[in-house]
Write a structure and sequence with these properties.
This protein is α+β, with helices and mostly antiparallel strands. The chain folds into three domains: 106 residues, 2-Layer Sandwich (Double Stranded RNA Binding Domain); 86 residues; 188 residues, Intergrase catalytic core (hpI Integrase, Chain A), CATH 1.10.443.10. It contains 16 helices and eight strands. A five-stranded mixed sheet has the order 1-2-3-4-5, covered by helices on one side. A hairpin with a 6-residue loop joins strand 6 and strand 7. The chain is rod-shaped. About 2% of the residues have low confidence.
Amino acid sequence: MPTTRLTDSSIRKAIQHARDTGTRVELTDAATPGLRIRITRDGKATWSVMTRDMTGRNRRFNLGEFPVMGISEAREQASVTRHKVRHEGVDPVAEKRAARQQAEAEKNAEPEMTLGDMLQLWGAQTGSNQKRAWYDRGKRINDVFKSVLGEPCSNLSSERLQIIADGWSSPSSAAAAVRYLRPVLKWGAKRKYVPAETALIEPPRKPAKRTRWLSRDELASIVPYLRQNAEHSSRAAVMVLLLYTATRLNEAVQAEWSEFDLEAVPPRWVIPGGRIKDTRGDGRPVADHVIPLSRQAVEFVDSIRKGRTTGFVFVGARGGLPSRWDWYGKKVMSETGTNGWTRHDLRRTAATWMGELGIPPYVTEAVLNHADIHSPLSGIYNRSKYIKEVGEALQVWADFLDTI
């Protein structure tokens, strides 16, 4: 094997010789121990360095190709590699192999789960995304935590989520989003999708308990307005049903015609448990809520049926479910000369007036479908829903609305 002080011209001459003769050529550099250049029959020239490793074994390590790697760089790389192999125990071949394997693993690895992915997986595995109540809850989470939905779960921290919630423009919306997100985070932490401390976020503020209910004079302005507009306004129709049944907004908005049986004795509306707010939090399925309908409620529902027997009862102008409730509430207040109430206050109004009308508290609790009709302890033993009494209470309430 020829040994000489390699130059650019001597290497190029050797390349040409290899091509002309169809033979492989290898030259050793006299200036740098172990440095050599191997030239194949087609003229490809590769730098390498020969050296012994710490065990005394003779090793060859490729450095790069000529002319991309020039003589000066090859000599420098040969000296560095020789020192690392002989004195530091470095194995460049093993390092390159590990780097290739890492790159291949990263290329074939599935993308890391994001917060949005975890929300979908949680919904699918728990069945929560099949419950209509999740429509509003999922929307709240997506609105407040939109900026981190696409981020890997491993990057999330309670501090970061807390800062996002604290900085949201509507504290009440942020508080609701946090309450809805925490069960998902706890579920993810048990499966190592997110750090356990992530679920420690807290609502920015504890929602103040409202006490607002509508007086007789306010009802005298609001009830006729809603009844008159119910035929051409799905929002007004929803509010009329809320008044007659003392239900929650989402329970009414997402009602389907198949849930109503106006021919039964008594006529009834059965709200599926999956759409009912779960105030117990113990993981047990929520039972369906059977509402005996008053005579006025039956007449109202029948008046807006218009021959329909399937699909949603209330449909917005664009074909979807009615929305923009804050806007509509302000519109009703403006046109009826009232103020300071919300659609949920209609439920409190019904409950308060039932008390004024002599309905026993436990019956009112049954009307509202609260988890504990009596005390929590007595509720364990007394499982009655007082359907007959609930029907009578709703009829008394509907009759009272007629008088105003």
